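Chain A, query sequence.
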Amino acid sequence: MKTSLVIMAAGIGSRFGGGIKQLEAVGPNGEIIMDYSIHDAIEAGFNKIVFIIRRDMEDDFRKIIGNRIERICRKHGVEAAYAFQSLTDIPTGFEVPQGRTKPWGTGQAVLAAKDQIKEPFAVINADDYYGKEAFVRIHDFLEQMQPDHPDDFCMAGFILNNTLSENGGVTRGVCAVDEKGYLTDVMETSDIVKTADGAEAAGKKINPRSFVSMNLWGLSPDFLELLQSGFEEFFEEIRLGKKDPLKAEYLIPIYIGELLKANRVTVRVLPTKDKWFGVTYREDKPVVVDSFTRLIKEGVYQRDLFSDLK
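Chain A, predicted structure.
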């Protein structure tokens, strides 16, 4: 079965302090975090990669990673494609609010790739390292996805404590999971910080063993129809004054949470013990570089990253 990895790489990275954080070198040969995710996805069996970027970063993106990854993909029989997220790509009948400067979030990002996605697919953030286990588990789920159950999805469930930054607060989708391992709710929680005895947000303690979403979802192509419908509803709420036209974002975890409450989908939580790391803040970069150096020393990756792919 064909399975796609959709990489959301259009984020501006305002907290990173300038530059395009998705394109920061962190590996010994100039590899960026995306290189490791793509390696792990191909190793797990994904055979199509879709990059979602902005038009204004296309030249830099192709120079730093795109052209190189296309060559690697061809060598391993993997298709590579591009999609472009734009502020002005909104539902028919609506207008971009005056003063709005940034795109509309992860939900809109995936919709930008709707013409490229015809098969079960996984979604990831470009600037997050997920580890190998999550890709294997998501891929295996997608390969077993039943055509007569197109609304049965999955997500990689990371342990909150494994996803916190030492350099500031992070936003995570804190998950409620039932006794059968299915997601029942996602609470998008901002500014979660590490504390001496766990984690907290806005002064409220959060169980550090909670499952969180890191935007690694396993979805069917039918999800795109739901996502488009939800995007139209999102803009209708803006028109009615229910959402801030300058700051509101259409986020995948929030929308999936709404679908769960309406009993329109199921989401299996696939636990992973891998430790997340990423470059939310510029101060995170040395930690990420050291982490990849350690993983190479431990034999998790080769110094010549893609040399071990068959």
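Residues 34 and 261 are 33 Å apart (CA to CA). The chain has one domain: 4-308.
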